[in-house]
Amino acid sequence: GCELTASTKSYTFQVDEKDDSDHILALSVVCLTEGAKDECNVVEVVGRNHENQEIAVPVANLKLSCQPLLSLDNFKLQPPVTFRLAAGSGPVHLAGWHRILHREDASFEEEDDLSDEDEEKELAPIMPAKK
């Protein structure tokens, strides 16, 4: 998680570029925390599109008196991604999870793969049911 405030308006989640694993970041909850004023707090996600252009998308508009919390149902993002407090002074807390999917080593897969013939030899024959 992270917290966005008037003094810390953005937070960037990134992974090591040399890491060949796939990373998924999922945003679960965005909420106002203690000390928040009754003002609109707009949180946006800043990322890059398929043409590598920066895009910003608002994901939450929170106000203490009417909507202090928003559940985003594990809104999935691909790092690097920046969360920015576009309006308001917060504090706004963001919570979620990060999953790392390790890619299998191709040479390891080849050694463990069984050919169709090997699989057939290892299967027990199917016997007819007795009446």
From TrEMBL:
Any GO CC annotation of this UniProt entry: cytoplasm
GO biological process, one term: chromatin remodeling
Compartments where found: Nucleus, Nucleolus
Key words of the record: Acetylation, Chaperone, Methylation, Nucleus, Phosphoprotein
Stretches assigned to the Nucleoplasmin core domain: 1-99
Composition bias type Acidic residues, residue spans: 108-121
Record-linked Pfam families: Nucleoplasmin (PF03066)
Chief location: nucleus
Family membership noted in the UniProt record: Belongs to the nucleoplasmin family.
Function in brief: Plays a role in the regulation of diverse cellular processes such as ribosome biogenesis, chromatin remodeling or protein chaperoning. Modulates the histone chaperone function and the RNA-binding activity of nucleolar phosphoprotein B23/NPM. Efficiently mediates chromatin remodeling when included in a pentamer containing NPM3 and NPM.
Name this polypeptide is given: Nucleoplasmin-3
